[in-house]
Automatic annotation (TrEMBL):
Family matches, as Pfam families: Amidohydro_2 (PF04909)
Highest taxon in the source lineage: Bacteria
Protein name per Swiss-Prot or TrEMBL: Amidohydrolase family protein
Gene3D superfamilies noted in UniProt: Metal-dependent hydrolases, uronate isomerase, domain 2, chain A
Native species: Metabacillus halosaccharovorans
Amidohydrolase-related domain span: 247-365
Position of the signal peptide: none
Length: 431
C-alpha cells in the first residue's frame, strides 16, 4: 500500500491558504528561530508564557535568555501538534538535534542566515515541499508571483463602527464619501482594484469579532447607521449590535461583487486563533450553520468554507454535501488535530463529492511551518486513503485520483489557475 504514499509524496501541490510575507520582507526583518514559532506561541501562552515574549519591541532579552525561557515552557507544550510542527521543521531543514540553550542559540543563527538566502522560498516551497503555487493573505496584492497569488481580506470594509473606519476606506478608495451609496461605490472600487491586481479570492473573517449570521437589512436601515457615524465628529462609535445592520448590508455587497468578478469567497469557520483575536474569541461565532441563509440566497457564489468548521465538523459536512455552492477546505485542520482531521476526512470521502474538497492550506506566516504542515497533511491523507483501499471502499487508482483532485486539480479548476492538472495513468501505480 506504499504506492499511495509514494504517489502523494511526489504530487505537486496547490496550497490554498497561507500568510507568507514576501521573501524580501523576511530578509529585512532578519527572521530568527523565535519568528518561526507562530502557532505554538498560542500553546506557550496558554501554558503560562508572557505574551510579550513574542513582541519584538517589548522583548529585550538576550538570545540565551530567550532560549532559556523558551525551553522552560517548551517542556509544557511539546506534546501538541503545533509543537511537533516546529520540531519537524527545524530538524528537517536545519539539522536541529540539540534542544539546549546552546543548541537553540546555534539554531537561531542558522535561521537568521537562511533568512538572508535569496533562494530560501524556492528551496523550501518549490523544491522540498513540492508546492507549485500558494495563496497568501498579507493585506496586499503585492506578492512574489513566482510563488504566490493574493487573497484579500475584506473585514476592514465590513467592520464599520466609527467615522475613522469610514475615512480609512475613503483613503484606500481615493474618493470622497458623503452618503452610504458613496461608501458602497468605494467598496466596489477597492474590490475591482484587488481583482485587477491579481486577487484570486475574497476573504471574510468576521467570525473573529462577530457572528457569522448575516441578516437582510434594507438600504435605508443600513444608511441610518451609516449617517449616524458620518455625523459623529467627536469619534463616537456605535455598539456592535447597532452596527450589525450596516455590516450585514456590506457583507451582502461583497458577496455580490465577488460573484460578478467570478472569484470565490473564503470564509473563516470554526476554531479561533488567539494570536488573531487576542483571547480565542467565542468559537460559537464561527458556527457554519449560521451561513445557511447566505448559501440559499447566493446560488451563483463559490463559498470556500475554511478549516473544516472544526469543532462543528459534522454540521459542516452535512452543509457542504448539500449545497452546490459550498466547498470544503482543510486549511489549518491537520495541525489543529491530525486525529480529528483523519476522522473528518474519512467521513468527507464518504459524504462529499470529491470535486468539492480542497485538501491543503498551510496557514503559516513562515515557510518552515508550511513545509512541516504539508508533510503532516500528506501523511494523514495517505493513511486515510490506504485504509479506504484496505477496507475495499476504493481502488488504489481511485485513491490516487482523489489525492490529485484535493491537492491540486480542484484548486486549479475553482480558482481558474493557468496550471496543468495532475494526470494519472493506471500504469503509473506500478512504477
Amino acid at each position: 500500500m506504499d504506492t499511495i504514499a509514494k504517489h502523494i509524496d511526489n504530487l505537486r501541490v496547490i496550497d490554498g491558504h497561507e500568510h507568507l510575507i514576501p521573501q524580501k520582507d523576511r530578509s529585512k526583518m532578519n527572521a530568527d528561530f523565535f519568528d518561526l514559532l507562530h502557532y505554538v506561541s498560542s500553546d506557550l501562552i496558554t501554558a503560562g508564557m508572557n505574551p510579550s515574549f513574542f513582541d519584538r519591541n517589548k522583548n529585550k532579552m538576550s538570545d540565551p535568555e530567550k532560549a532559556k525561557e523558551f525551553l522552560y515552557y517548551w517542556g509544557r507544550v511539546k506534546n501538541t501538534t503545533y509543537a511537533q510542527m516546529v520540531k519537524w521543521a527545524v530538524e528537517d531543514l536545519y539539522d536541529m538535534d540539540d534542544w539546549t540553550v546552546e543548541g537553540i542559540c546555534a539554531l537561531n543563527e542558522r535561521v537568521k542566515k537562511a533568512s538572508q538566502d535569496p533562494d530560501l522560498y524556492r528551496k523550501i516551497l518549490t523544491e522540498k515541499s513540492k508546492i507549485d503555487l500558494a495563496f497568501t493573505l498579507i493585506f496586499t496584492t503585492k506578492v512574489d508571483v513566482e510563488f504566490f497569488r493574493p487573497v484579500m481580506w475584506t473585514d476592514h470594509l465590513v467592520k464599520v463602527r466609527s467615522l475613522k473606519d469610514i475615512e480609512s476606506v475613503e483613503r484606500e478608495a481615493v474618493t470622497d464619501i458623503y452618503e452610504f451609496g458613496d461608501y458602497l461605490d468605494a467598496v466596489d472600487t477597492i474590490l475591482k482594484r484587488y481583482v485587477d491586481e491579481g486577487m484570486v479570492a475574497t476573504k471574510i473573517g468576521v467570525a473573529y469579532w462577530r457572528t457569522l449570521a448575516v441578516e437582510k437589512p434594507t438600504f435605508g436601515e443600513a444608511a441610518t447607521v451609516f449617517n449616524k457615524l458620518k455625523t459623529s465628529h467627536l469619534c463616537e462609535s456605535v455598539s456592535q449590535e447597532e452596527a450589525k445592520r450596516l455590516q450585514d448590508f456590506i457583507i451582502h455587497r461583497i458577496i455580490q461583487r465577488s460573484i460578478e468578478c467570478n472569484v470565490p469567497i473564503q470564509i473563516h469557520t470554526g476554531h479561533q486563533e488567539p494570536s488573531v483575536s487576542s483571547n480565542g474569541n467565542f468559537v460559537t461565532n464561527s458556527k457554519v450553520t449560521d451561513l445557511v441563509p447566505l448559501l440559499l440566497e447566493y446560488k451563483k457564489a463559490k463559498f470556500v468554507l475554511l478549516h473544516g468548521g472544526y469543532p462543528f465538523y459534522n454540521e459542516y459536512l452535512s452543509l457542504v454535501k448539500n449545497f452546490p455552492n459550498a466547498y470544503a477546505d482543510l486549511t489549518w485542520c491537520y495541525i489543529l488535530s491530525p486525529t480529528a482531521t483523519k476522522q473528518m476526512l474519512t467521513q468527507m470521502i464518504e459524504m462529499v463529492p470529491q470535486s468539492k474538497i480542497l485538501g491543503f492550506g498551510g496557514d503559516y506566516s513562515q515557510v518552515e511551518g508550511t513545509y512541516a504542515h504539508l508533510k503532516l497533511a500528506k501523511k494523514v491523507l495517505s493513511e486515510v486513503l490506504t485504509s479506504k483501499v484496505e477496507n475495499g471502499d476504493m481502488t488504489e487508482y481511485d485513491a490516487c485520483d482523489f489525492a490529485n483532485r484535493v491537492l491540486r486539480n480542484n484548486l486549479i479548476e475553482l480558482y481558474q489557475l493557468d496550471l496543468k492538472p495532475a494526470t494519472l495513468q493506471k500504469e503509473d501505480l506500478y512504477v
